Amino acid sequence: MRSSLQKIERIKDILDLNGKVLTYKHSDEEITLNLGEEQLSSIFSRFIKRNLSTIKNELNNGKLVKCQSGLGISCLFIPSDNEEEFYLLTPFLEYLIPTKLFHESLTKYGASISELVCDVYFSLPITPRKKFNYLVELLMGSENVDYLDSIVLIEDTSVKNVRRSAAKKNNYLNSILESEVKFKKEILEAVVDGNISRVNMLFDLRHKIHGVDEESVEQGINVRRRKSYNMNDLLRYALEQHSNDYLGVEELWVKIKNKLDNYDLSEDVIRSYCLLVDREKYKDKQAVVRNCIAYINDRISEKISLDNVSDYLGVNKSYLSSIFNKDMGISIVDYIHDKRVSNACYLLENTDFSISEIADYIGYFDTSYFIRIFKTLMKVTPLKYRESLSKK
Q1: Are 3 and 81 spatial neighbours (Cβ–Cβ below 8 Å)?
Q2: Which pLDDT value is given to residue 208?
Q3: Are residues 13 and 152 both part of a single domain?
Q4: CA diameter of the chain
Q5: For residue 296, is it within any domain?
Q6: What's the domain count of the chain?
Q7: Is the pLDDT of residue 38 over 70?
Q8: In-domain check, residue 36
């Protein structure tokens, strides 16, 4: 299987893969990779150098070659349609290993542990196994890939132990937040839609249910700050494409950018942008309706009643119900059901939660009632909905 640079770049765009594609010649006697930190670069380059002869032989046979070092850093060699050349997809992580295990692995290589080493390592792009398999399928031009025959895996002897320990502690990678790319994409979609309840749910799933080890995911204040800056810029760009309130976006971007020097605001950044979209989305509605929506969206997974909302807003519930229905074309109760069922659909598709767990999580504490509401809105039961997804 041989590929052109244009084909590889197109596949990268389709899968939203980070990193670069480098071109080398078979006559090159050495491949030196710059990972942004001298020790990591040296460890990985030495590993590649030891196996370069084997790599080239397999590439000449038209095989893909995946190399994985003892630190869990991987790269993919791809045979070129020009037989004198080959391509290298720059290093990525397949999973995040726990901080303690990473430090132990560094020590085995005689490397010193520093903030820069951790910053660089934990900033490498993550390409989970599922996305890597999609990459291989697109390169091979087939969904029925014989991985044993198509890919040669060259790994450091300690990789298996690292992977086993990492998988045991970080099994959240096979769930909703399987990759940072997927998480950012879903966050951006929720923000552009002004869906603050979805934003809250995504963060809650990330931090609590999926057990994300923040120490491992974002090592050091410099990494956290850099990711916040990046998210701030991404959100600004996304909203400029969808919002008429350009000045509001610009002012918020500057305000948050000025604060980022002091502490990590990644979640606050996202919620602030989401509220801006929400304000723009419902700017033609009466203030009491906007406040009602904000109250519901922020408490969508809690027990909410018309009495709760009217008491909080300090208005008569009959008046609130009437004005909401007039402005939104839907009752408050139906609005709550729509939001909750939307979140239920997401959980049915992206988690293995049971139906009763989903009912509790989204704010229905009676599973039978949840199933009845879900079927009314979606025309199928939650179980049938999940089964239909598995057939696609």
Answers
A1: yes
A2: 57
A3: yes
A4: 81
A5: no
A6: 3
A7: yes
A8: yes
- CA gap 224, 52 in Å, rounded: 36
CA pair distance 185, 191, nearest whole angstrom: 10
Which of the residue ranges 3-7, 181-185, 208-212, 251-255 would you say has the lowest mean pLDDT? 208-212
Q: Name the band, by pLDDT with cuts 50, 70 and 90, for residue 65.
A: very high
Judge whether 331 and 321 are in contact, CB under 8 Å. Answer: yes
Task: Output the CA torsion 333→335→341→343 (10° steps).
Answer: -130
CB 219 within 8 A of CB 124: no
Minimum mean pLDDT among 15-19, 207-211, 266-270: which range?
A: 207-211
250 and 277 belong to one structural domain: yes
Short-list 198, 200, 180, 209, CA closest to 344 = 198
CB 374 within 8 A of CB 384: no
Q: Report the 10 Å Cβ neighbour count for 57.
A: 12
Q: Name the domain boundary from 115, 147, 169.
A: 169
Q: What size, in residues, is the chain?
A: 392
CB 200 within 8 Å of CB 136: no
Nearest residue to 105 via CA among 140, 69, 58, 63: 69
The pLDDT, as a whole number, for residue 381 is: 95
**Strand 73-79 relative to strand 85-93: parallel, antiparallel, unpaired?**
antiparallel
Structure tokens at 74: 């991987």
Tell me the whole-structure pTM to 2 decimals: 0.47
Last residue of a domain, one of 118, 144, 169: 169
Span 171-193, average pLDDT: 60
Q: Please work out, in degrees rounded to the nearest 5, the angle formed at the alpha carbon of residue 130 by the alpha carbons of 128 and 132.
A: 70
Q: Cα 39 to chain center, whole Å? A: 28
- Judge contact between 236 and 249, C-beta under 8 A: yes
C-alpha 58/C-alpha 150 separation (Å) is 10
Task: Judge contact between 252 and 272, C-beta under 8 A.
Answer: yes
Query: How many contiguous H segments (helices) and E segments (strands) does the chain have?
Result: 21, 5
38-50 helix and 52-60 helix, angle to the nearest 10 degrees: 60
The tens digit of pLDDT for each residue in 349-391 reads 888 888 988 999 899 988 999 999 999 999 999 999 998 887 6
Which residue range is the domain that position 231 belongs to? 180-281
